[in-house]
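I had to read the description of the data format several times before I understood it. Each protein is reduced to its one-letter sequence and a matching series of backbone shape codes. The format is easy to grasp once an entry is in front of the reader. For illustration, here is how one protein appears when written out as sequence plus structure tokens:
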Amino acid sequence: MPRVVVHNATLQCSCGSSVSPLQAVRNQTLNLGDDHKPVASTLDHIPSTNILPFGSCSKRSWAACSPQTSAPWTPSGWNQVAITGDPTLTQIDLLKCDEGGIITVVDPGQVILSIGG
């Protein structure tokens, strides 16, 4: 089962030169882990608010990346928990950039602890 994505998860764009942290600012009610990171929803897709630049963009001749994410994340079907009515974001959901890139979750931001051997 895919993990839920939280604030400061690591994102990658297929056209970008570097990774970028997700800013999960929409949800102010549901937090995970000892560090109480806000859980992201599929509506956390707003450029410069939720989605920060990915370095340089190959679709723009390696000019500075300026994410253009006009539509929400595409849910994978594993989004079974809602935050105030919005589906949670999971590590296998996809976000399309209007410039032509596909944004994916590299690291959902949750720490998995292993107890025992």
In short: Residues 1-117 form a domain with the Tumour Suppressor Smad4 fold (CATH 2.60.200).
